[in-house]
Amino acid sequence: MTTANPLLDFSGLPKFDAIQPEHVGSAIDSLIAEGRALVEQLATATETPSWDNFARKLEDHSEKIGRAWSQVGHMNAVVNSPALREAYNDSLAKLTDYGSDISQDERLYAKFKAIQASAEFANLTPTQQKIINNEVRDFKLGGAELPAEQKARFKVVSEELSKLGSKFEENIMDNTNDFKHLVENLDDLAGIPEDAIQASAEAAKADGKTGYQFSLHFPSYMPVLQYAHNRTLRETLYRAYATRASEFSKPEWDNTPLISDILKLKQEEARMLGFNNYAELSLATKMADTPKQVTEFLDTLAKRAKPYAERDMQELVTYAKQLGIEEMQAWDVAYVSEKLREEKYAFSDQEVKQYFPESKVLAGLFKVTETIFGVQVRKAEAPLWHADAAFYEISDAQNKPIAYFYLDLYARNNKRGGAWMDECITRRKKSNGIELPVAYLTCNFSAPVGGKPALFTHDEVITMFHEFGHGLHHMLTQVDEYGVSGIKGVEWDAMELPSQFMENFCWEWDVLRHMTAHVDTGAQLPRELFDKMVAAKNFQAGMQTVRQIEFSLFDMRLHGEFDPHGKKTALDLIEEVRDEVAVVRPPKWNRFPNSFSHIFAGGYAAGYYSYKWAEVLSADAYSLFEEMGTLSAEAGTRFKNEVLARGGSRPAMESFVAFRGREPSMDALLRHNGMA
């Protein structure tokens, strides 16, 4: 039965063409009221708790709330408006409150523990056992064992953190949307690619201005940093980008006090639960055991990578002098790097981009997926939130649908920056059959300009494959129970395994050549150009690696060793980390932490190391394809069955060993990065 509120219609796909901000509050209020009634009913039931009469019923309701909220959160990220933002934040506060009440309910906790300790537990499937064990752990981490007076404070802390994270992200978005820089003279844009100039002219025209308008959205910002001969223009945009959401922007957008508040609250939360710091709490649900283990892993990687990074940097400084830049600054790095790469390898990013029109890239991505995983991908119809979005179906070898996904590829105002995959609907078994998984795949690439198709840089192609890897983890699951289906229940530091694994195919000639056609001539990417790209693949790999280590160490120390009540600031800490590992030193006014939304608003707190941790897993996983053949269906089937299909139903290390036949080694990663 459909209802008047599209967010309460669970009969099929979301009604994105019907959802309005005014639907949000009433839908969430209704679902919370239903949830509270169910909790009372289950908590006071006198029958012995079991999977069917207790755990599954809670999970069913959790799925409904998750599904409705995912639609709201998604629209808030991709078609943000003042009304939607207000509705989102109001309901976020209510949901956090509701979630805190559930996770602190001793009656529910006691029933999960009773199932865990019962004779029935042995008769549950391993997947169901994993869910019960996860629930018992999560109740502990949710404050269920705290004394009453601490529970109230714990709840306040959770709600405040949720509010601050949302505000942190909004400040970055508002600052990014607000910045516009108009250039009147075409001569000042020398070096910038034609399509980027055309896009800037169209942006100015859309704003009723004459000239060329640039923004801090990546497709507008990056070509200036990478190609503009005009050093002042590069500095202007870099300064605006590097000081977003700081004291150099509007006071109401300054994230500095939010950083301090978030860190204090996270430390308080961790200590209430008996941990020394938030890093320990964060790792309680990850593959890595202790902050020390993570720090040692990062230090080992830094020792291997830093000599390469220093060599990269020295080469850059020397080359900058040839370009007349005596003292290279942060806004020169991308420009000098691009010029050096063009000279060393005789090609530019811009030249490569002409061979990657959107339609060919998507066809190539789907072809790889179809070949190694034995599925088919085709376009389908569904209500959408924006004209730029699209919808697709994945079916099995028998042409039976097994999953769906939405694709929203272009940057625009009122859309959060970056690229991500999120869950729309999670696969699970219901009384009337299997509910199929649905994913959101979102990027911020350049839109089509001047009547030509959208063209992607090779880096953007890699990003596309990366996010699709996350999507496959969600969509190709074979787990029937909601709590560990797809990416649910997967340790955070293993989450990047499928995404980084998929990136490897972007460096294979047999894959890449079939997904290219020059935008003007239709010609395939020449082998000679591909060979140059491969030769340049590890260009500045040392610098890129230590940059990731810098962010990871900063994050781990911030949540592990840093005293948020002390005199030292987050900025002081990142400078200390840079003293140890960085080779590129940004100016003192750079405010990187203020826009580091991964750790302050995106769930990566004391978890940013996951990118490097999972890169070890993904490089080693891909080495089996190097042994068996790039598009080996046999290796693909193994990866699908042992990693993707299993979701969070068993520890990630078990899935990796089942696939690879042994524990992971760092060797493949170092070899792939030219640092063996």
How would you describe what is shown here?
Helix content is 56%, strand content 7%. The protein has 676 residues and is α+β, with helices and mostly antiparallel strands. Among the domains are: 6-145, Glutathione S-transferase Yfyf (Class Pi), Chain A, domain 2; 179-243, no CATH class; 253-347 and 540-608, Neurolysin, domain 3, CATH 1.10.1370.10. The protein has a five-stranded mixed beta sheet, sandwiched between helices. Helix 24 (633-644) packs antiparallel against helix 25. The radius of gyration is 25 Å and the shape is globular. The model has no long low-confidence stretch (mean pLDDT 97).
Outline:
The protein has 676 residues and is an alpha+beta fold. The chain is built from 26 helices and 9 strands. Among the domains are: 6-145, Endopeptidase. Chain P, domain 1 (Glutathione S-transferase Yfyf (Class Pi), Chain A, domain 2), CATH 1.20.1050.40; 179-243, no CATH class; 253-347 and 540-608, Neurolysin, domain 3 (Orthogonal Bundle).
